[in-house]
Hints:
It is built from 4 helices and 3 strands, in the order H-E-H-H-E-E-H. By secondary structure, it is an alpha+beta fold. It folds into 2 domains: 34 residues; 53 residues, Arc Repressor Mutant, subunit A, CATH 1.10.10.10. The chain has a 3-stranded antiparallel beta sheet with strand order 1-3-2. A hairpin with a 2-residue loop joins strand 2 and strand 3. Helix 2 crosses helix 3. The longest helix has 32 residues.
Amino acid sequence: MSQVQLIQVTPNELADIISENVKCHLKELFTEFKGSKKEEEQEFLTRKETAELFKVSLVTIHDWSNNGILKPYKLGNRTYYKYSELKEALFNSNHH
Length: 96
């Protein structure tokens, strides 16, 4: 961090400088968070990650897949679940 010397700066000017810097950093953080959220929603989770997300067993995830509650995506012998669809299933389960 660089050293800053303030010479002949009024309290109001100092407050404005600080405010502008804080706004700039908050805008960067918001943009970064917004970008990571989009990536997260397109991500695919493994069966284990899905079970951890819902705090249930792998058997429950298997049952939910067989009953059409969750939509599995298969690649070879691996099973994945789309994160955005998992959130949708969670919110839709409250409407029954």
